[in-house]
Amino acid sequence: MKDNDSVPVVELRDARKIYRMGDEDVHALDGVNLQIRAGEFIAILGPSGSGKSTMMHMLGFMDTLTSGKLIFEGKDVSGVGAGQRAWYRANRIGFIFQAFNLLPRLTVLENVMLPLVYSRVSRKEAEERARQALSRVAMEHRIAHRPSELSGGERQRVATARAIVNNPGIVLADEPTGNLDSKNVRRSLDLLCSLRDDGLPVVMVTHDLGVAKYAGRVVEMRDGQIVRDYLQDGLRVPAEI
Length: 241
Ligand SMILES: Nc1ncnc2c1ncn2[C@@H]1O[C@H](COP(=O)(O)OP(=O)(O)OP(=O)(O)O)[C@@H](O)[C@H]1O
Ligand SMILES: [Mg+2]
What we know:
The protein has about 240 residues and is α/β, with parallel strands linked by helices. The chain has one domain (about 10-230): P-loop containing nucleotide triphosphate hydrolases (Rossmann fold, 3-Layer(aba) Sandwich), CATH 3.40.50.300. Helix content is about 30%, strand content about 25%. It is built from 7 helices and 10 strands. The protein has helices spanning about 50-60, 80-90, 110-115, 125-135, 150-165, 180-195, 210, and strands spanning about 10-20, 25-35, 40-45, 65-70, 75, 95, 170-175, 200-205, 215-220, 225-230. The strands form 2 sheets. Strands 6-7-8-3-9-10 form a 6-stranded mixed sheet, with helices on both faces. A 4-stranded antiparallel sheet has the order 2-1-4-5, with helices on one face. Helix 3 (about 110-115) crosses helix 4, helix 3 runs parallel beside helix 5 and helix 4 crosses helix 5 (about 150-165). Bound molecules: adenosine-5'-triphosphate and magnesium ion (MG). Adenosine-5'-triphosphate binds next to strand 1, strand 2 and helix 1.
């Protein structure tokens, strides 16, 4: 792990997101300060509606702040337009959604190749890199399957392969273990831990305290604010999974 003086991969400074609903303002993010460094595995905890997904959307260039700053890889990107945000999403962000969002008509291999379609690599190289990512998550034996022909744990692994195929600067996972049984939860955490060990920062939203225990750092949110941010000895994933 890098020392704490390293430049954060991503940083939020006094980040605010206000949704205007009729004549009521919803302060979904209410002055968030957060620095995320290479090699960190961060669990985001907090009650429903506390702003976890909103924060992930900001970190992942899926939405823009009302005020405050987003610094990504040392650059102030708070004001960038839709085109540049799309570039960052395609090239620098690996997103794993709870529902995995795999496209049902595409095969496993095609699903994992998809992010590369937007980043100007040849089809041959895209396929090669997708195969590597699938082998990383132990799914190379299912490349011709469609998502409906996979188990929940396998879908999760394909979604993880798709998230890393672009060599992103950070992996963002919103409830990645929400739909899995305990064996696949451990397997999926093991995979996220191995990404962290390779130096990739991993940010994971979870409702599950047991899942949060695997992260080295826990950030708790309430009402759009970070109310606790602490380091812990991340649990080791049992070798037998
Ligand atoms: N597009 C939107 N328009 C208006 N309000 C929104 C929008 N998205 C989120 N909100 C509100 O912002 C607040 C934070 O929502 P967010 O989705 O970030 O919560 P969360 O912590 O992810 O909750 P959960 O654990 O239920 O997923 C909530 O009060 C929600 O109703
Ligand atoms: Mg959410």
